[in-house]
Each structure stands twice: as C-alpha cells, then as structure tokens.
Amino acid sequence: MPVHNPDGYYYSWHSDRLWRKNRNRNPNDTCYGVDLGQNYDDGLDLGRYYDDGYRTEDSCSKNYEGPTGFSELETQAVRDYINELQSTRNLAAFFTIHSYLQLWLYAYGWSGESVPEEPEVSRVAQIGVNATESVHNTQYRVGSFYNLVQPVFGLSIDWSYSRGVIYSYVLVLRDKDEYGILLPLTQIVPTGEETWAGLIAAVMAI
Predict the structure, then answer these.
(1) What is the pLDDT of residues 135-182, one digit of tens each?
(2) For residues 186 and 109, what is the distance between their CA atoms, to the nearest angstrom?
(3) Which site from 32, 67, 147, 189 is most exposed, i.e. has the minimal number of CB atoms within 10 Å?
(4) CA-derived radius of gyration, the chain
(5) 13-30: per-residue pLDDT in tens?
(6) Domain residues of the chain, as ranges?
(7) Is 20 exposed, middle or buried (0-12, 13-18, 19+ CB in 10 A)?
C-alpha cells in the first residue's frame, strides 16, 4: 500500500506541508484529522489517554489518536486487508514505513517489556539494517518502539503483532535531525535504494 493517508497527503501538498493526520472532520468541534499511525486497536483503548505532551485527547493536536482504535476508514481498510491476507495467504511479516530518525522498530510501543520472540525479531531487523547500511552507509538503530522512541498506544505493529504477525516492524527512514521531514530531493532515491535492500534482506531472513 503506497499511501496510507491519501487525503492527508494531498492536503500536505496544497495547504500545510507538514500536515500528518487524515482530513476527517472530528465530531462536535472544528478540528480535522486523526493520526492514523496511532489509530489501531492494540487492545488498550481503556488506557488511550493520558496527556504527556504527545498522546492527547485534544482533537486539534497533530498527535490526536482518535476516539477509539479503528475509528477511521483508512485504518479499517488496512485492518480488513491484513485480516484477509492472514486468512488466505499465511501472512508472515508486516512493515510500515515512516520518517524520520533512522530506526528499525518492533513491538511493543505501549510497554517496555520485551516480546517473547525478541531475539528472533531483533535478528531479522539487524539483518535488514546491515543490508540498509551497506548501500550508502546510512546508520540505523534496532529496538522496540517503546525503548527507542517513547511509549505510544495504538500502533499498527502492536496490533499486527497481537494478530500473530511476529515479524511486525516500523521502518523510520532518513534523516536524523538535519532536515527532518523535509528531506532534500537528492536524498530521496538513495533512501529508496537502501530501504529496498534492507526489506529484501529482512524478508529473506524470515
């Protein structure tokens, strides 16, 4: 799936270049959008909200997770497609691609505890990172979302992992802090080249 958030992507090119949410009108207020990256039902909806400056109940925030997991049509579509793949194709891995920080991340996002399969999921991630770094020497780190980024509810990898897809990863691409989201055009193709190499190596290692 090349674009998870087509409406938000279009809006980012025509109105607000750094827009990250979808464009759904939130009920009972004037604010738009849900952060789709945190709109998955990881089984922890009762604990979704405690405002630490990142996760918030404020629907005007750029990090608003939505009222419940899978409240949005976009995440519902991904859920339904993944469920179909699991039932018909024996789905083995789930990758979601973001930017920026140069990380290969696995579950959990909501807990600092290690998943039981951490040695194996870390092994595959490290193979992917080694292949990524071999292309243009772009350095990545490997670890759980919770430990390398911060605690977050509603991640797609926590949901897919809970569905039995052990090899569930977030790839956070270039760069680190120099350009951030606004990566120069000259780095887009090299980023694609190294990411593709990493994906192929990780898939072959599963």
Answers:
(1) 999 999 999 999 999 888 889 999 999 999 999 999 999 999 899 989
(2) 32
(3) 189
(4) 17
(5) 999 999 999 999 887 788
(6) 6-205
(7) middle
